[in-house]
Amino acid sequence: MEKKCCASAGTIMCVHNIYINAIHNFGNDKQKEEFLRPYTDGKNIASFSLSEPGLGSDASAVTTKATKNGSVYTINGTKSWTTNGVESKALIVFATTDKSKKHKGISSFLLKKNIPGLSLGKKENKLGIRGTSTCNLIFENCNVPEENVLGELGKGFNYAMITLDAGRIGIAAQACGIAQAALELAVDYASKRVAFGAPITRLQTIQNKISKMAVNVETARLLTWRAASLKDAKTPHTKEAAMAKLVASEAATFNAHQCIQVLGGMGYTSDMPAERYYRDARITEIYEGTSEIQNIVIAANIFKERGL
């Protein structure tokens, strides 16, 4: 995702991988055969539906309900900001099965998107990552077999938080790609642009911008690889994933902004990809947890490590 430097492709892959990781980690053999195996060859994509209208960053306040009726759970509610929502063939949806337990009463369900009772809202017209689909999912008396409960009942919120740790590493890698692309475009343009009788690479102002952009890329990449290595080693990485996502997303936004400054008026036109980098970068500070949420996660884990 980092080398691709295409935010839309990175988003599609990242969300699909979140779905895959959740089933791989918490699904049983039958669920893996039905909901995992057909989604590992690139022919089908899936989605991960947690957010709801009006909830923002409070993922624990899920209002979508799943009511037990015999051998099925009947789901009612609306999910928002579902990436891959239009094209996906299957999804994981989170719903409350016991409201009295608050976040400990949230469960996760596996379902095919063509199931009766599930319909799509409008496709969002977004600032960036326009190569991806984002829409609401509307559940109206949608009956899901009880064998489609992913993992244990009431563990959905915990599963979501564990899964999003890995997702944040993916978003960090995506952001690194945007930051790197913006740097390369700025350097390439500056080396050819002549002003005051010389390439603008000789101007200290331009040199300062390029230097800061390069440092941003390397810092973000090291944090991202560090978080990924911890995940591969199956060691705790919540704090490190949040750090990588925070730094990389802000680096992407900063570098895209500075790239446009280096390009001047050309950077503001669609003839150059700088404006797309700028539009795409902005979402990396929002989805999978805003920058403000990453700060909370980082601080909470630091206090936890010290027994506070």
Automatic annotation (TrEMBL):
The keyword Oxidoreductase applies. One of its GO terms (molecular function) is acyl-CoA dehydrogenase activity. Belongs to the acyl-CoA dehydrogenase family. Keywords: FAD, Flavoprotein, Oxidoreductase. It comes from the Eukaryota. Its cofactor is FAD. It holds the Pfam family Acyl-CoA_dh_1. Transmembrane segments: none annotated. Residues 154-302 form the Acyl-CoA dehydrogenase/oxidase C-terminal domain. One of its GO terms (biological process) is fatty acid beta-oxidation using acyl-CoA dehydrogenase. This is Short-chain specific acyl-CoA dehydrogenase, mitochondrial. PANTHER family: ACYL-COA DEHYDROGENASE (PTHR43884), ISOVALERYL-COA DEHYDROGENASE, MITOCHONDRIAL-RELATED (PTHR43884:SF12). InterPro entries: Acyl-CoA_DH_CS, Acyl-CoA_Oxase/DH_mid-dom, Acyl-CoA_Oxase/DH_mid-dom_sf, AcylCo_DH-like_C, AcylCo_DH/oxidase_C, AcylCoA_DH/ox_N, AcylCoA_DH/ox_N_sf, AcylCoA_DH/oxidase_NM_dom_sf. Residues 47-142 form the Acyl-CoA oxidase/dehydrogenase middle domain. The keyword Oxidoreductase applies. Residues 4-43 form the Acyl-CoA dehydrogenase/oxidase N-terminal domain. GO terms for cellular component: mitochondrion. It comes from Cinara cedri.
